[in-house]
Design brief:
Elements: E1 2-6, H1 12-24, E2 27-30, E3 43-49, H2 57-62, E4 71-78, H3 85-95, E5 99-107, H4 120-142, H5 156-165, H6 167-172, E6 173-175, H7 184-188, E7 194-197, E8 200-203, H8 212-216, E9 222-224
Parallel strand pairs: 1-2, 1-3, 3-4, 4-5
Antiparallel strand pairs: 6-9, 7-8
Helix pairs in contact: 1-4
């Protein structure tokens, strides 16, 4: 069986993972819930967003422990720019002795929108063309093709600096009067960084900048730097309740 390991906070990576499973089969596993090394699978496909020209912390921590004998394909999705993240993750896999075969990048809607709003027409355009990009990548995987990123300048130093400071974002979140203490933010956080203390939602110091709580709060009650922005994003083509779940 093929292991499709994904990290997703608003559904983009889950949507890609579901599309891959529809075509080639396999088991979809949410990386924060996975403690194995992939040796139970014939091949491993990792589906991940690009964070700060690199990868989410959970993916960064996963790669060093993967079984080096298993063929590995990485599918990255991005909203802004790749910035050499494909070449960086390829080299990172090599440095950890992994059998990396291919790295693909797919443009998807941007969700790191704490300080700006994505125009609706642009969002619709990206979503409209996403399936074609995904199908092209899947066809390459099915055909056994190899896709190795060409050597390019990466932003490794910037990525590592940003990753080391993501926890600061948690300190900048708060909830406004719209909060009904439903607890959804607590449940969706992949690092248990959110809690209800003395009848108030509080954010600790271990944020990984996924923004799952921010985008998925039903009341839009979570705010960044106390700014009341209305825009939120969840991939409209997935069942939100499946984000963070394993799918056999």
């Amino acid at each position: 069986m093929i292991g499709i390991l994904y990290f997703s906070s608003t559904g983009n990576s889950l949507y890609i993972a579901e599309k891959i499973k529809e075509t080639i089969g396999g088991q979809i596993i949410y990386i924060p819930n996975y403690s194995g090394n992939g040796n139970e699978f014939e091949k491993i496909i990792i589906v991940t967003p690009i964070y700060s020209y690199g990868m989410p912390r959970h993916v960064f921590d996963l790669l060093p422990r993967l079984d080096s004998t298993k063929e590995l394909t990485i599918v990255q999705n991005y909203g802004g720019m790749v910035g050499g993240a494909d070449y960086y993750v390829y080299n990172y896999a090599l440095q950890n002795g992994l059998n990396i075969k291919s790295v693909y990048t797919i443009k998807m809607p941007e969700n790191f929108t704490l300080t700006f709003t994505v125009p609706k027409f642009y969002l619709k355009s990206v979503l409209k063309n996403a399936d074609k990009r995904i199908e092209k990548v899947i066809a390459s995987i099915v055909n056994g093709e190899t896709s190795i990123p060409g050597k390019k300048r990466t932003k490794e130093a910037k990525y590592l600096k940003n990753k080391a400071n993501w926890h600061i974002i948690g300190n900048r979140f708060s909830v406004n009067e719209n909060c009904v203490q439903c607890g959804k933010c607590i449940r969706v956080c992949p690092v248990n960084n959110i809690a209800l203390v003395d009848n108030k939602i509080v954010f600790a110091d271990d944020c990984v900048a996924c923004l799952g709580c921010y985008h998925r709060c039903p009341q839009k009650a979570i705010v960044y730097l106390k700014k009341k922005k209305k825009y939120r994003y969840i991939n409209p083509n997935i069942d939100e309740n499946l984000i963070g779940k394993n799918i056999d």
